[in-house]
Predict the structure.
Amino acid sequence: MSSASRIPPGPRGLALVQAIRFLRRDPLNAMLSFAREYGDLVHLGEGPLHIYMVNHPDLVRDLLVGHAARLRKPRSTTRPVIDFLGSGLLVSEGALWRSERHTMQPVFHHRVIDAYGQEMVACIDAVLAGWHAGDVHDIDEEMLKMTLAMVTRTLFRANVQDAEEMVVRAVKVLQKVSYQQGQLGLPIPRWLPLPGNRQKWHYIDELDVLVARIIQSGRAAGHESGNMIAMLAAGIDQPDSVMTERLLRDEVMTVLLAGHESTANGLTWMWYLLTQHPEVQEQLRAEAEAVLEGRPPTVADFKRLTYAENVVKEALRLYPPAWALPREPLEDIALGDYTLKQGSMVIAAPYVIHRDPRFYPQPDAFIPERFDTDQDTSPFAYIPFGAGPRFCVGTAFAQMAMRMVLVRVQQGFRLTLVPGERVGLDPLLTLRPTNGVHIQMQRWN
């Protein structure tokens, strides 16, 4: 038997049954445990079932870059999401995806994103105006509202403040129900009267109404700089464009939901970490005072706000919103010394790689200073926004938004976790807190 046809190490027999139960019950700890026990490429499988876990940066590079054309996102995970994202960039495949990616990239070019700085600060200040010393807020919901305003005001030229509560509820329902439906691996008809299914389609219908309103508003705004809707709508009916009215709806829905939700997740976990490290908050405030002297941050300031950048990077290392990157091989592929089966589930998990002591000493500790110097590891050891051709197109927007929020909030408030608050991890489509993160706001003395 050639080395490339061997099965990677992993549990067998009764241990396999227990491992699969562990993976379903607690996927984060299960994958960490499997990586420690079995190594850089782990196999769970028997008969037609094959799950592979890729736990080394070099193998992630080979998988997501070298074999990108031979992979797709698994149907079991994308099918429930297609119900509301349609053929948007996040779930499309093949020639359609390539055309969409080409169309969307100019929307998120750094020159366009940099122009959003002032509007981002205005969105942040609008939320902070409702914060007062001693208030307790679920920071998860506050960040969802803040990033929703950022996305809709900058990219869409729309105001959806009257719908923000609905969108926050919709995100939570769609995350949970779609993840559960993906675990079943079977299509769930819309008409099936399951409670979660009814909730899901209720919010999809409400979001469709909102997206239609956003598109109308964006079109009315005309060709202002950075108006994503005008940029995309210009391609409708053009000879070489795939853009249609339906696809415009799908792209707007994708950016509306995925664009603000993943950024909000990153911010929520960042604030949770900062409540555990008041000394980091002190250092952030000192840096902001030295650089900004009380004025709002601008994009030009980020070159000097280096500690804030390190805090964002370290938060994304410990709690990457895209905690797992599942793929399905379209044919048998060779990875390292092994062959991964066509139709199997292959998971590259940033959450696992980011906590590997080979690449990050004291991997579970929050140490922003580790990013003061270039990491002497593969770039694929740090992949909070994915890797390869499907690397998140909105990465620059998310990173800028997180830094803006971090600096602006720390200029005015010191955040502390409510005593007795227990924060749990809920690895759904993205890495969410189980029951929010309740934080008290205090003014700096």
About this structure: The mean pLDDT is 93. The two ends are 70 Å apart (CA to CA).
